[in-house]
Amino acid sequence: MTHALFEKHKATLEAATKAIRSRGYWTPYPEMPSPKVYGETANDDGKAAVEACFGKEFELDQPGRLGTAGTEVSPYGVDMNVRYPVCDTAALIAAAEAAMPGWQKIGPAGRVGVCLEILERLNKRSFEIAHAVMLTTGQGWMMAFQAGGPHAQDRGLEAVAYAWDEQSRILPEAVWEKPQGKNPPLVMNKRFEIVGRGVALVIGCGTFPTWNTYPGVFAALATGNPVIIKPHSNAILPAAITVRIAREVLQDAGLDPNLISLAVVEKRAETQALATHPAVKSIDFTGSNVFGQWLLDNARQANVYAELAGVNNVVIESTDQYKAMLRNLAFTLALYSGQMCTTTQAILVPAGGIDTDQGHKSFDEVAADLGAAIDKFLGDINVATAVLGAIQSEATLARIAEAGEYGHIVLASRKLEHPEFPKAEVRTPVLLSCDATDEKSYMEERFGPISFVVKVADGASAIALSERIVKEHGALTAGLYSTKQDVIDAMTDASLRAGVALSINLTGGVFVNQSAAFSDYHGTGANPAANASYSDSAFVANRFRVIQRRWHAA
C-alpha cells in the first residue's frame, strides 16, 4: 500500500524535485478558490464542516486522554467553543516511539508516498482548513485560503521533496570488494538503513498555523520521525483538522496513526517539559524571541529550528516609479494588518529626501505620501476588510493604541466595521515617523500594523543602519528602492554580510512579505530572526541518520 502511494504520486514528486533545483514557478495545488477546481460545493461544504465543530468536542482518538480543553477566541467575534482532547504528553511520546519502527521499515519511498497522500487529502479539504484558519487567526478570506491551504501545502511538499532528494542519494546496499593480490579478495555485503532521530515536536504559531507548521511536520515525517504538533492556544482547529486527516491516511495505509498526534497544552511549563523530554530530537518553532531563545538554551537534546521576531526594513534611496513604489509599500503594510513575520516595520529614508520620476521628494513628503497611499488603498471597506483581516491578539490591539508614543503620527489607525462580522477587531495601519537616533522606537519588533519612516543622514547611512538592524535584531526580509547600480551593489553586499533576503525595486504584483515555495529561500539561518533556512536540504538532512551493517559475503 505504501509503495503504491509512492507510485501514485511519483509524477508530483518528480516535478517538485525538479522545481527545487530550477527555482522557477511551479505548484500542483491551485491557489485560487475556484469551484471548477475544488468542486461546486467545496466552499459551502468546508464552511459547514468547520461550523459543525462549534460547541462540540473535536473527535480525535489519541492515547493518554485526560479530558478536554479549548480557549480559541475568534478575532471575528464568532463563538466557536470547540473542545479538544487533552492527552498525557508522556503517553503521546510513548505511542510515537512505538510507531517509529514500522515507519522506518517501509523506507524512504514508502514514507514519501504516505506524506504525498496526506498532502493530496489536505488539498481536497482546503476550504475547510481555510475557514478554520480565517476564524482562528483573523486572516482575510483569500489569504486564509491561499496561505492556509495551497501555499502551506506547497511548503509541506517542498520539505518532502528535499527529504526525498537527500535520502534517495543513499544506496540501500552495496558489495565491497578489496583486492588482496594473489589471495582471494575481501568481499563484504553492506546494508545502509535510514533511521529517524526521534520524536519531532512542532510548535505552531497563532497567525499562520499551517504555513509555518507544515514544513517541519513533513520534513520530520518524510525522514522517519513521528510528529507531535503543539498548536498555539488560539489556533488549534487548523492543526486538529490536519492531524485528523493525517491519521486517517496512516490508518488507511495500515500504519500506526500515532505517528502524528495533537498535544493541546495549556501551561507554559508543560510545553517546556515536552520540549526538553529526552525522546524529542527536533523542535520546529515560530514565535516570540523569549520562548524561542528558551528553547535554544534549554532543549539541548534536540535540534531547534526557530523562526523568531525581527525588524524587517526597507531602504528608499531613489525611485523611477514613485506611485508604484508607494502602492507596493501600502499593500505590504496593510496585508493581514502587519501580522506577518515578513512585514516591513522600518522604512529608512534620507533626511534630504529622494529623487523620483515626479521630482525630488522631501523626507516629510515621502512619509505623507506613503500615508496617503495606505489611506487610498483602504478607502473601500470591502477591499480594506479583505486585506486587513482582523487583529488576533489583545496585545496587538494594545500596541496599536500606544504606538503614538514612539514617534510622530503620520497616519493614525482607525477601527473599521466589518460588513459581515460586526464583532471583528479591524484596524487600519498606523504610520509613524522618527529620527534614526530614536532607536528604542523602531529597533524592536512591534508586531502588528505599526511601521516607521525613519530619517537617516543619507543613502549610505541607510544601508549601514539596515545592516546593523539585521545583525543585532534579526530580519526575515529587507528591501531597497534605488535607481543607482552602485547603491544596489552596496545594499546587496550589506544583505550578504547580515544574512537577510533582499528584494529590489518591487513595484508590481510581488511584495516583500510574500515567499514562494520551491523558489524563494524562506529564512537564511544567518541572522538572529531565524536559526535555519526553511527552503533547503539542510532543513531536512539533520533529521535522520544512516546506520549500516555488514557481513562477509559467501
How would you characterize the overall build of this protein?
The structure is a single chain. The protein is of the alpha/beta class and 554 residues long. It folds into 2 domains: 283 residues, Aldehyde Dehydrogenase, Chain A, domain 1, CATH 3.40.605; 192 residues, Aldehyde Dehydrogenase, Chain A, domain 2 (3-Layer(aba) Sandwich). 42% of the residues lie in helices and 20% in strands. The chain is built from 21 helices and 21 strands. Strands 14-17-18-11-10-19-20 form a 7-stranded mixed beta sheet, with helices on both faces. It has a 5-stranded parallel beta sheet with strand order 7-6-5-8-9, sandwiched between helices. A 3-stranded antiparallel beta sheet has the order 3-4-21, with no helix packed on it. Helix 11 links the parallel strand 6 and strand 7. The longest helix is centred in the N-terminal third of the chain and has 18 residues. The model has no long low-confidence stretch (mean pLDDT 97).
Which descriptors apply to this entry?
2 domains, 21 helices, 5-stranded parallel β-sheet, 21 strands, Aldehyde Dehydrogenase, Chain A, domain 1, alpha/beta
